[in-house]
Amino acid sequence: MHSTDIRVFIPSKDFAQSQQFYQALGFSKESVNDELCLFTCGECTFFLQNTYQQDFAENLMMQLIVTDINAAYQQIVNMGDLARKYQAIKNEPWGKVVYLWGPAGELWHITQLLA
Hints:
CATH superfamily: 2,3-Dihydroxybiphenyl 1,2-Dioxygenase, domain 1
CATH class: Alpha Beta
Distance between the termini: 30 Å
Number of domains: 1
CATH topology: 2,3-Dihydroxybiphenyl 1,2-Dioxygenase, domain 1
Radius of gyration: 14 Å
Protein name: Lactoylglutathione lyase
């Protein structure tokens, strides 16, 4: 098997709000149909789906690797009310990370890895 990509399907509690959240975070949106959007930032892509299951959403975690954690953190701060829950930059053994919770409870580990 030769694979070229892997994409997660992220749930949304409020489809419109989640779309706004991810666009404010810096992703561009392409509508697939009324229930599904494809979001892209650089080489990274994921699907946002208009479905919600609380247990799944609140246990879903993704890691987004960035080259500049300070710029990523400023992007999050600039989101205002759309970024309701996040933590300041933390030093972890693998690099620097900002923990950001999405509108459905999904947790993003926005990480700048150690060089």
